[in-house]
């Protein structure tokens, strides 16, 4: 199960180059249901995603390079290229009434921002995604200072829909 929230941002974080970065290319064989192929540096995957915005099923299967490029020829729409920076959230904040259902104290919850900086034709789009262990934690999470609009429930910001944009 993938549980994530998505945000636009007001500014890039300081020292962005100090965080791990992956180069991602992805294409869509289908958007309903979502069937995606992805190259992430030198790794290749086929992904199936179920319906949903905040939470949905996700299955990843490994591909080899040849399979990826064979399937890429069959993809519909735009191929999406982006750089993804992985930024730890040192002290995530939550709504005052939030109590973790896992029994972990709030300072034991480890979260990361996956900051996607899109290449043309989608530049200058930048999206921050945060994945969560459960829906309660996701709903209680308070956005970081440099986050702007919460676009989790806006399908226009899903990569599968960007792949269909003209």
Keywords:
46% strand, mainly beta, two-stranded antiparallel sheet, 166 residues, Hypothetical Protein Pfu-838710-001, ten-stranded antiparallel β-sheet
How would you describe the overall organization of this protein?
- Helices cover 11% and strands 46% of the residues.
- It has 166 residues and is mainly beta.
- It has one domain: Hypothetical Protein Pfu-838710-001, CATH 2.40.320.10.
- Strands 1, 2, 3, 4, 5, 6, 7, 9, 10 and 12 form a ten-stranded antiparallel beta sheet that branches.
- The longest helix is centred in the middle third of the chain and has 8 residues, at 65-72.
- The mean pLDDT is 94.
Major sheet size, sense and barrel closure: 10 strands, antiparallel
Shape: globular
Report the top-level CATH class: Mainly Beta
CATH fold-level assignment = Hypothetical Protein Pfu-838710-001
The domain tally reads: 1
Short description:
With 166 residues, the protein is mainly beta. 11% of the residues lie in helices and 46% in strands.
Outline the secondary-structure elements.
Elements: E1 2-9, E2 21-31, E3 34-40, E4 43-49, E5 55-56, E6 58-63, H1 65-72, E7 76-89, E8 93-94, E9 111-118, E10 126-131, H2 135-140, E11 141-142, E12 147-150, H3 159-162
Antiparallel strand pairs: 1-5, 1-10, 1-12, 2-3, 2-7, 3-4, 4-6, 7-9, 8-11, 9-10
